[in-house]
Amino acid sequence: MHASDIIKAKGPKVETIDSGASLGNAIDRLAELKIGALLVTNGSQPVGIISERDVIRVLAGAPTGARETRVAEVMTADLITCTPEDGVDELLDLMTEKRIRHLPVMAGGELKGLLSIGDVVKHRIREVAEEAEALKSYITHG
């Protein structure tokens, strides 16, 4: 199973926010949508990601006007991405190694989707269950 298979199953819709938006707007969108991250864009190009972790880091001990801070000042700009061809094990290894929970899927400079650690783990568990069932069937039916 590959990143493209997970995107097919969950759909390609990606919640985004403009890099010039306020932190308050990002916080409100994260809460409204009940999600952990927004892909930050300049027009249609991904330029970063803003997650709950980024928000907490900024708000910890911040003055009361922190909600007006621009997303571009808070986001993680070193965007780590994957391709549709990357396998589930590669995705899990990358997310673990880089300590990230969200991966934009890019192909030819175009955004194809956004995977969360939950999406990838769910599909890996499904793979393992299917493999176990196939082995059980093989052993039982020879």
Automatic annotation (TrEMBL):
Entry keyword Manganese: no
Gene3D superfamilies per the UniProt record, alphabetical: CBS-domain
Keyword line: CBS domain
Cited InterPro entries: CBS_dom, CBS_dom_sf, CBSX3_CBS_dom, Diverse_CBS-Domain
UniProt KW DNA-binding keyword: no
The CBS domain, residue ranges: 6-69, 75-130
Pfam family name, one: CBS
Name of the molecule in the record: CBS domain-containing protein
Native organism: Parvularcula mediterranea
